[in-house]
Here is the input.
Amino acid sequence: MTNHPVTAHDPTLNQFGFCVPLFAYPGAAFFRTPNWTALDPAAAVDAALVAERLGYDSLWVADHLVHGNDGGILEGWSTLSFLAGRTSRIRLGTIHLSHHFRPPGLTAKMAATLDALSDGRLIFFYDIGGGIPECPAYGYDVPPLGERIARLDEGLTLIKRLWNAEEPLTFTGNYYHTDAAICRPKPHQRPMPPIWLGEIREDPWCDVVCRHATGWNSTPASLATLRSKLEKLASAASRAGRDLASFELSLEIEILIGENRAEVRRLADQIAAHPSTSQARQRDDVLEFLRTTDPATQTTLPASYEERVLIGTPDEIVDRLRAYGELGISHYMLWFLDFPATRGMELFAEKVRPAVRQRAR
Here is the structure.
């Protein structure tokens, strides 16, 4: 086992994560990796290593079997394990690790092993799964939402008990069971790695979040939408006797950053020119704007787009992050829309992160 310093969660500091591009989703949807026209596994790994060198706090991998251009995507857990061996400091997270894909006992063993081998760098971000078209394509049956929530609730109970059991564990639930199961080695982080759950669904889901999670995550959202989500989470926390401040609050969000607005507009035009994947749901508002306006004078994209993306100059991004921070967000999972260029992640590390590293008091 290595003995490298690990970036631990410091509640006084904002944390900035890099979402590893495991898939290409080019063109008009402006979704996650819109400037990348073809999946290149080596380039994805190289980008993650650049993120560690630049001082990012966490790496994040999506968990899908079919995604992006031509359905091509690297399997998330395999990739995360590979990156654990190629890095030494940066924390390692899954984006909505699908409970649906793996039995919870196996997931507990996999997570404990990765946390042990990485000297305690895992953030265990879990979800109910059930995506389309990947589940029918791979032969997974998808129960109704209520049952999926119940299965995850019971599965997380089993996972936590396996992580902490000192004796062989026999567990009998409605959906899962073990017979004298042994989960050794234990996770490096004691009593367990951070458990994150995400999004706001119906009340039973929010109750599961409050029962199990130390962290909560939102997919890309405007300030108004995020404020509404957090109000619902706060209500669920109150039912559970918890305070919203007991969660590490995070936001997954896309970012398009340039030294000036002219550079941002140039990048947007470049993305829009890529042939789109057939799966893409186009951003018609952005495409119409780019088609009909003069790039020399019109550099602010439609408000309907800009309100849910970090977009603009370093100073503009700083202002947006401070606004999200006032809502309690302290961990940002960033999709850099200019990838495979690394200019965006470099510019952010140089000019944005230092300005908002310290959390507002």
Observations:
- The mean pLDDT is 95.
